[in-house]
Batch of 2 targets.
Target 1
Amino acid sequence: MTNSTRFAFTKVFVTDLDAQASFYKSVFELSEKARIVGRVGADAVEEVLLTTGRGDDSTLGLWRYRDRPAPAPGAATLGFDVRDAHETIRRVEHAGGAVVESVKGIPEHGVLVGFVTDPEGHLIEVVQTL
């Protein structure tokens, strides 16, 4: 029997929806799939859905509470598989993010890995397969 469950998306709460969407578009070449305004329980929210456009429908959702502050960053780590980890790190810095840990090789896993944050401090793991 196969598992019919699949991982579909990650959502991150942000303070500045447009600035954060711009960051992820410019650094990770994501495109905007949809914008949604609605309610989740008693909370009014705005959301931007970003995608790679590769056809696998992987989605990053950026949520903003309309009537209260976002939770503190750090509750999740986003992971991006990239073609060039060093170039991605340069784009992160140029777009207002910060380097937490420079790119380093992990030969036993055949990858280069670096850790950065977006402009609001959300942790991102950047992975390049060798």
Target 2
Amino acid sequence: MPPKRNQPAAAAAPKTAPKRRSKLAKENNITPDQEAEIAEAFALFSSTDDSKHGVILTSELRRCLVALNAPPANQDEMNEILDTVDPEKTGRVAYEHFVAIAALKLNAKNDEDDEEAQQEEIARAYRLFTGGEDRPIQLGDLKRVAKELREEVPDGVLRDMVREATGGGLGGVGKEEFEGVMKRAGVFG
């Protein structure tokens, strides 16, 4: 039997240093990835200038924001953005000013996405209580869920939960009331 050959040592995966946020990213509350995305979009439309990043023409600002998937909602918002980034009406937007606007737009978009995800999660939780039916949550639903979770909750406590959600009545708990209870309990935003 031939002697075993030594296997070559596996090449170590190159370590990439974690990306650090620049001062501009910190000031505008964006991640290094978001900053890179903003810089890439800006570079697509920029012309060279004395500064490191150049400038973009105000006529290209909308297209640049669209490239970031953060377009202005309407012409009024676009006019407000233009007044902010080019108050002297030079027709040019510096990188630092663009980063500030792009960061605001991206953060607002993320907030909207978070709100949509939260609303879907609330709807999903509500459907769990109602068994997927479009109706208010009843006392029986709470009993069933407690049993499924193997929790022994006295009927009086369950009735108190319904009363709290409905403002005193023992009727069913609607979606808005359910959302309010979940938010007050700290489960959702």
